[in-house]
């Protein structure tokens, strides 16, 4: 599921991004104006969350799986009716986790639990979906080979090669916000670089975790591309 | 023109190259961006008299063939090339790498991923440097 959040308040955008850090199973994009939506390809299963008072032309709501409205104050029934907002589709800002849970029911037993924070990528792309796709395609084309090289280097216990591959992977880890292996990758790189791997079995297990998270991320990114 | 000096980027990651290219576009920075994928290629380019000296080198540390530190040592041993400011851009937060960089006279050290705001600050400082330094003439 992908979420598009539209709000012209930078403060509320930040609050939303902060909230989404705790909901990393969902990808999201943030925009300031409804007009920005006309430059975006909306994928199936995308939820729109928009502020009630926004500049720009009203988009075609039918392309979204759900549309929710938010505002800093409660709305009069007249305005709700004018904006065609159903009762359970309005939430007062700041949006809380409990509100988000109502908007985005979590898939129980989801296998895809990789921790992904695309906020850096979204900031970088600034709504440019083509550029985002380009960045994702670099990940998808380079990472499988890098992971293969890493596994081979670990098998042969080639510390310097391991350090070099992990270093190259870390650019991707940070760019695509794979936060749950950021520290681990740094630790693995330095212990390999300084040739201080004491227990290769433990090291291999940790590399496996890194590999697994990066593969899960590839699966998620494939869905976005 | 002083503000049209080229920038030499030494980077082997396609992802990072794309980011710098985009940052240049976004910031309206019209200077020519020259890209080389390792220290040796960068050094060869700098030593070729046909090429004008860049106003800045953006340097990744971890590259094949010749890494960033070796490159930095070589250009700082060169009486002409050593005047070009070098900003290290690396994923390494390791204090020893930072220290090694500054010991080799790097002008700056930025940890990737670099945010646009930090990049803008760096380029603005650089433009000011070009406008006031002897290197700009």
What proportion of the residues of chain A is helical, as a percent range? Answer: 40-55%
Radius of gyration of chain A: 21 Å
Order of helices and strands of chain A: EHEEEHEHHHHHH
Quaternary state reads heterodimer
Name the chain pair with the biggest interface and residue counts per chain.
A-B, 20 and 19 residues
Order of strands in the sheet with most strands of chain B? 2-1-3-4-5
CATH superfamily of the largest domain in chain A: Response regulator
Q: Would you identify the regions of chain B where 5 or more consecutive residues have pLDDT less than 50?
A: none
Q: Mind telling me which CATH architecture of the largest domain in chain A this is?
A: 3-Layer(aba) Sandwich
Succession of helices and strands of chain B? EHEHEHEHEH
**Ends distance of chain B:** 9 Å
Gross morphology of chain B is globular
Give the biggest sheet of chain A: 5 strands, parallel
Strand order in the largest sheet of chain A: 2-1-3-4-5
| The CATH C-level class name of the largest domain in chain A | Alpha Beta
Beta-strand content bin of chain A:
5-15%
Uncertain runs of chain A: 107-113
Number of strands of chain B: 5
User: What percent strand of chain B?
Assistant: 15-25%
Tell me the radius of gyration of chain B.
14 Å
CATH topology of chain B: Rossmann fold
Write structural notes for this entry.
- The complex is a heterodimer of chains A (225) and B (137).
- Chain A contains eight helices and five strands.
- With 225 residues, chain A is an alpha/beta fold.
- Chain A folds into two domains: 109 residues, Rossmann fold, CATH 3.40.50.2300; 96 residues, Four Helix Bundle (Hemerythrin (Met), subunit A).
- A five-stranded parallel β-sheet of chain A has the order 2-1-3-4-5, covered by helices on one side.
- In chain A, helix 5 runs antiparallel to helix 6, helix 5 packs antiparallel against helix 8 and helix 6 packs antiparallel against helix 7.
- Chain A is elongated and about 70 Å long.
- Chain B is 42% helix and 15% strand.
- In chain B, 32% of the residues are buried.
- By secondary structure, chain B is an alpha/beta fold.
- Chain B has a single domain, classed as 3-Layer(aba) Sandwich (Rossmann fold).
- Chain B has a five-stranded parallel β-sheet.
- In chain B, helix 2 packs parallel to helix 3.
- Chain B is globular and about 35 Å long.
- Chain B has five helices and five strands; from the N terminus they run E-H-E-H-E-H-E-H-E-H.
